[in-house]
Automatic annotation (TrEMBL):
Residue ranges crossing the lipid bilayer per the database entry: 21-40, 46-67, 79-101, 156-182, 214-237, 243-260, 267-292, 312-345
BP term (GO), one: transmembrane transport
Organism: Motilibacter rhizosphaerae
Entry similarity comment: Belongs to the autoinducer-2 exporter (AI-2E) (TC 2.A.86) family.
InterPro entries: AI-2E-like
Topology relative to the membrane: Multi-pass membrane protein
Locations listed in the record: Cell membrane
Principal location listed in the UniProt entry: membrane
Superkingdom in the source lineage: Bacteria
Name of this protein: Putative PurR-regulated permease PerM
Keywords: Cell membrane, Membrane, Transmembrane, Transmembrane helix, Transport
GO cellular component: plasma membrane
């Protein structure tokens, strides 16, 4: 070993992390936590904004049509569309509530007769009560049933509060969507103008693709709901089921809810059909089984041809997330929102591959939107 060489190698010198970098990292973490807390606080407002944006995108083409055909200002065209829409909604609610109130009164007058028939083993429920010893169970547990009914006041107050919150949410969403439709074109053009010229055409194309997805989905869903309601009314009417109009309207509204809506409407219809008789209830149940096959294999493909084709797993996940975030309204907008996300992802994928589309396409088969 040479005397000039050191016996031990000097350790490498490590540079210290600047205090400014440490402070910046801690600050970013704190800002992230603060942002998450703020989002958690305003989560309901964000959901309302998302739903309002969905309805604004859906109604914007109709407002454009009214504006161009009638040559009105956008403010007047938007007001006209919303007034007509609210009148139609009020008419729908009236058509549902008025006969419901009348027929509920009629049902309340007939309840003693149903109870008497059930106790004597007659009527649609009598044989079922006797067969499964339900009457004996009711006799033995009268005190528990009375106490349960007596404690129903607190849940009723809770439901009233929930209904009040739903009304506030509907009013807020309506106002937000109205303002979005009114000011949407100006804000969109101002935002797109900030992009480079070569990207403006692409952004407009994708935005048009997403808007057509939402509009096509809503149109198809409403068409299927109308078909379901009309056919259900015909079946209930000819089988002699009471409250046929109200039940058919309820089934049509439920059919707008993805996945579970048709089943929910079918259960209510079958239960109401039991008032007419067990045979009628069986006929109604068989009808709904047949109709579900027609809707899934005949009507739904027509809807999907006008919107984005989604994988069944994606549909289920999107609906579950929508229900968790915003209840029934979230379920209604879940599928078109998932379709919009798929459209954007597909466009980004095509651009990354260096193959930008000349025309927007949807679904795995890449069919043109138009």
């Amino acid at each position: 070993m040479s005397l000039d060489q050191p016996r031990y190698a000097a350790p490498e010198r490590r540079d210290r992390v600047p205090v400014r970098t440490i402070a910046a990292t801690i600050g970013m973490v704190l800002l992230t936590v603060l942002a998450l807390l703020v989002v958690q606080r305003i989560a309901r407002t964000l959901v309302w904004l998302a739903i309002a944006l969905f309805f604004a995108v859906a109604l914007s083409p109709l407002v454009d049509l009214v504006q161009n055909r009638l040559r009105l200002k956008r403010s007047l065209a938007t007001l006209l569309v919303y007034v007509v829409g609210l009148l139609l909604l009020a008419g729908l609610v009236t058509a549902f509530v008025t006969p419901l109130v009348n027929q509920v009164g009629q049902l309340s007058n007939e309840i003693p007769k149903y109870v008497q028939d059930a106790q004597t083993g007659h009527g649609p429920f009598g044989s079922l009560l006797k067969r499964y010893d339900v009457d004996q169970y009711i006799t033995k547990n009268q005190d528990k049933i009375r106490s349960a009914l007596a404690g129903a006041g607190v849940p009723a107050l809770h439901y009233v509060a929930v209904a009040g919150e739903a009304v506030i949410a509907l009013v807020t969403i309506t106002v937000l969507s109205f303002l979005m439709v009114l000011e949407g074109p100006k804000l969109t053009e101002a935002a797109v103008a900030q992009l480079p010229d070569d990207r403006q055409t692409r952004v407009r194309r994708v935005a048009h693709d997403c808007a057509r997805t939402v509009t096509g989905y809503i149109t198809g869903a409403l068409l299927i709901a109308v078909i379901c309601g009309v056919l259900t009314f015909a079946v209930l009417y000819f089988t002699g089921v009471p409250f046929a109009g109200v039940v058919a309207l309820f089934v049509a509204v439920c059919d707008l809810i993805p996945l579970v809506g048709a089943t929910l409407g079918a259960v209510v219809a079958v239960v109401v059909a039991l008032f007419a008789g067990v045979q009628e209830a069986i006929i109604v149940a068989v009808w709904f089984v047949i109709y579900q096959q027609l809707e899934n294999h005949l009507f739904q493909p027509v809807v999907q041809s006008r919107t984005v084709k989604l994988n069944p797993l994606a549909v289920l996940v999107s609906v579950l997330v929508g229900v968790e975030l915003a209840g029934i309204l979230g379920a209604l907008v879940a599928i078109p929102v998932a379709g919009i996300i798929q459209v954007i992802i597909r466009d980004v994928y095509d651009v990354r591959r260096g193959q930008p589309k000349q025309q927007p396409t949807v679904g795995e088969e890449r069919r043109p939107v138009g």
